[in-house]
Design a protein that fits this description.
Layout (H helix, E strand, L loop, with lengths): L12 H4 L4 H24 L3 H8 L3 H8 L8 H10 L10
Helix pairs in contact: 2-5, 3-4
């Protein structure tokens, strides 16, 4: 039987994967905003077409969002979309 080593997470999976602290922070923020946007779309029962109309983007952008294509979205764009969706975006510096 092989013994597995378990390493406790730092709290940021991207930092754990070896990204620089700066990039890990941005990636984590983008992932969180995307998750909250997907939550909002689901909670409101919007189709991708309805979400696109309400957020002021094309349906293909919503498809990218739902599929988690984080590389297609800047942090600025995600903050804009979250605000348009009625979410309050706040930065907490620890």
């Amino acid at each position: 039987m092989t013994q597995e080593t378990v390493t406790e997470s730092s709290g940021n999976v991207f930092a754990d994967l070896g990204f620089s602290p700066e990039e890990a922070t941005i990636l984590a923020m983008r992932a969180e905003l995307m998750a909250r946007l997907r939550e909002t779309i689901t909670e409101k029962g919007w189709t991708q077409a309805q979400a696109a109309q309400r957020l002021g983007v094309g349906q293909s952008r919503i498809s990218d969002l739902v599929r988690g294509k984080h590389d297609k979205f800047s942090l600025d764009m995600l903050v804009t979309l979250a605000t348009r969706a009625g979410r309050h975006v706040e930065l907490a510096v620890a």
